[in-house]
Here is the input.
Amino acid sequence: MIRTDSGFEIEIQKETLDDWELLEDLEALENGKTIKIISVAARLLGDEGLTKLKEHIRTPAGRVPMSAMQDEIFDIFQKLKQEQEEVKNS
Here is the structure.
């Protein structure tokens, strides 16, 4: 279970990360194609998880801030990396 700094919780299946197209989208994102954050989020979280995350960060005005979504996605990847390092060091 991944828990972001804002309190969002989601279970990311191992096979979710074994996705060539997710890797392609991450490379494009790294190379400045910031619009790819949308497909990265969808591939990583799935429809249900993405909806849950949007509701988690939705403002009282009903908006889903781009900056908050980006922060959450990057935090999820950071937590995944920490999990992998902990498993490797066990």
About this structure: The CA atoms of residues 12 and 77 lie 10 Å apart. The longest strand covers residues 2-3.
